[in-house]
Amino acid sequence: MAILSIKLPIHIHPLSLSFRFHDRCEGCSFRNQGEYYGGYRCNDSDCNRVLFHKECAESPLEINHPSHPEHPLRLTERPPRYECDICGIHHLADVPYFYHCSICDFNVDTSCARKPPPPPTHDFQDLPFVFPKISGIYNCCGVCGHSVVAGKYYYSLPSRDQYAHLECIYHEKKVNLPFHPNHPLELTISKSLPDDAEKACVLCGVRSEIVMYYCLICDFSMCLNCVRSPPPLVIEHSNTHEHHLTLLSRRISFTCNVCGMHEDGQVSYLCLQCDVMVHRSCIGLPHVIIINRHVHRITLTNHIGPGYSDCGVCRRPVNQFHGASFAPNMLFIRNVQQVTTFGMG
Fold first, then answer.
1. Local confidence band at 245 (pLDDT 50, 70, 90 cut-offs)
2. What is the pTM of this model?
3. Which range of residues forms the domain containing residue 263?
């Protein structure tokens, strides 16, 4: 599969299209919220695992946003401060990109920059919502039930004491998704469900403590992130497997045919012709890598064969009938995530 590179305003180096699942984005506050597929990555040796959502990487250099009509906002790396003036979140330095007005010292993070106000007749609990900045008001969001805090932007109709977080207003009350075709999923407040209800997303495993999409009939849950940016149902990646891989939207126990690791209660991709099962994170693994603790290149192989029993990094046993990364006279790992943990050269 050819690697395509493109120069985009958000990063100093050219970015390559990615065909893997990732768990972070340098362009927004996406951290520890499950995984997303695709996007862009930087392959320059000076950058350590720089990854972007597609929409974050393709952010325009300048925007006009209704939260700050006085001046345009310019995409800025490491502005004077790291707090978004719309959602009020202080992102620290791990989210370096903001839309910034240098005249007014006004910041909007890339996630909020993509959230324009709804139309005046936006239907939420049969009330139109506007886009004011409030102060001194403490109430509850009409979607998730959590607090509305002073000094942030909200959709609100103060005359009727109604408020909603920006991120909540964009979620439909019911969705029909191919991952669960038999019934619609309803936007549900987590604490309203019984204690034994499944509150972990069936696709990414993230446990929702506030709101999620849920089917009461099937006890089937999906987090907001997977509903908003769902994984592909079918992936074609010839370097991983010769046939199409189809998402099995059910958490099962299986042994991954790429890395050989056995997992309990995980989501996999399945080849319907070969009965091959693959972790999401093992799709698109590079065939050759270099690590800083071995002199030779490390090559991914689908079958190790006898004579190798333990991983050369973690010393845990390796299944000879499945894949691993291999170097002459040494078996190094069972999955590439482990190599990147120890550092790549």
1. very high
2. 0.63
3. 234-282
